[in-house]
């Protein structure tokens, strides 16, 4: 399946891009995370990465072809 991955803040700094399109297999989110960790080892050092799928926090549902997955660090308000 082909998905669009969006990167924000420090995650974008590590990847050097704001988005990319990736082809992943049936492993879904676990496969996507491992693919990204292999491509960008610096992501492993970020704790508490937040993930959204199609503009909603990731709830554990399987990914589908055409999904837009965003990775970003926790946000704090003040």
Describe the protein.
The chain is of the alpha+beta class. A five-stranded mixed sheet has the order 2-1-5-3-4. A hairpin with a 2-residue loop joins strand 3 and strand 4.
Order of helices and strands: EHEHEEE
Q: Radius of gyration over alpha carbons?
A: 12 Å
* Number of helices in the DSSP assignment: 2
- Quote the average pLDDT: 92
SS elements, strand count: 5
Which quaternary structure do these chains form? single chain
Largest sheet: 5 strands, mixed
Which strands sit side by side, in order, in the main sheet? 2-1-5-3-4
Low-pLDDT regions = none
Question: Beta fraction of the residues?
Answer: 25-35%
Structural class of the secondary elements?
alpha+beta
Helical amount among residues, as a percent range?
Answer: 10-25%
Gross morphology is globular
Give the N-terminus to C-terminus distance in angstroms.
Answer: 39 Å
């Amino acid at each position: 399946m082909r998905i669009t991955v969006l990167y924000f803040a420090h995650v974008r700094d590590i990847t050097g891009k704001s988005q990319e399109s990736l082809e992943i297999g049936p492993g879904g989110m676990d496969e996507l995370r491992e693919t990204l960790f292999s491509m960008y080892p610096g992501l492993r050092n970020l704790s508490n990465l937040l993930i959204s799928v199609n503009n909603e926090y990731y709830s554990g549902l399987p990914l589908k072809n055409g999904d837009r997955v965003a990775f970003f660090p926790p946000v704090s308000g003040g």
